[in-house]
Amino acid sequence: MDQVLSYLPPFEGLLPKWLVFVSAVSAINSIQAYCSSQYTSLLYTNGSVPCEPLSGRVFGTWTFLSAVIRMTAAYNLTTPAVYDLAIWTYVIALTHFTGELIFGNASLKGRFLSPLIVASSSIAWMLIQRKEYLGL
Ligand SMILES: *[C@@H]1O[C@H](CO)[C@@H](O)[C@H](O)[C@H]1NC(C)=O
Ligand SMILES: *[C@@H]1O[C@H](CO)[C@@H](O)[C@H](O)[C@H]1NC(C)=O
Ligand SMILES: *[C@@H]1O[C@H](CO)[C@@H](O)[C@H](O)[C@H]1NC(C)=O
């Protein structure tokens, strides 16, 4: 158990662990999006709007980039540039998800609620704790 814990980010609090968790989930989602555009369609609209295979892979590519930045941030949480990049991954995601609700290619129910909740709560959490971790 201690061995496993030693791989966790060397910072206090739940935020770095949360970033590792979300990063791992993002990476898995990214692989799922690459494997099948049906995954992306189910995520956005519970299957009612089909997803182009290219759109699914682009979603997977962008999600993987977010995963890399979030993982980097978890292990470098006191580095301002990296901390802010992680916030940006959530701001970009939330903007995109909210935009799709407006464009009608996403529906406010089922699976689509979790990325909305994760992005908005992470932004709030990271902004509230910013001073504490960066010591600014
Ligand atoms: C990021 O974290 C790793 C591991 O803790 C460390 O080796 C590296 O120096 C950090 N990089 C920055 C820019 O803080
Ligand atoms: C998806 O978005 C496009 C605009 O980007 C819009 O024309 C289309 O009607 C939307 N699809 C649905 C099912 O709402
Ligand atoms: C999602 O779609 C399935 C099958 O089309 C349906 O049974 C289910 O109720 C839908 N879920 C939501 C949250 O709309």
UniProtKB/TrEMBL annotation:
GO CC annotation: endoplasmic reticulum membrane
Domain of life: Eukaryota
Protein's membrane topology: Multi-pass membrane protein
Transmembrane segments: none
Keyword terms of this UniProt record: Endoplasmic reticulum, Lipid biosynthesis, Lipid metabolism, Membrane, Steroid biosynthesis, Steroid metabolism, Sterol biosynthesis, Sterol metabolism, Transmembrane, Transmembrane helix
Pfam short name (any one): Erg28
Any single biological process term in GO: sterol biosynthetic process
First and last residue of the signal peptide: none
One annotated GO molecular function: protein-macromolecule adaptor activity
Main location as per UniProt: endoplasmic reticulum
Cellular location(s): Endoplasmic reticulum membrane
The UniProt record lists the keyword Repressor: no
Family recorded in the similarity comment: Belongs to the ERG28 family.
Name of the protein this chain belongs to: Ergosterol biosynthetic protein 28
Species annotation: Penicillium angulare
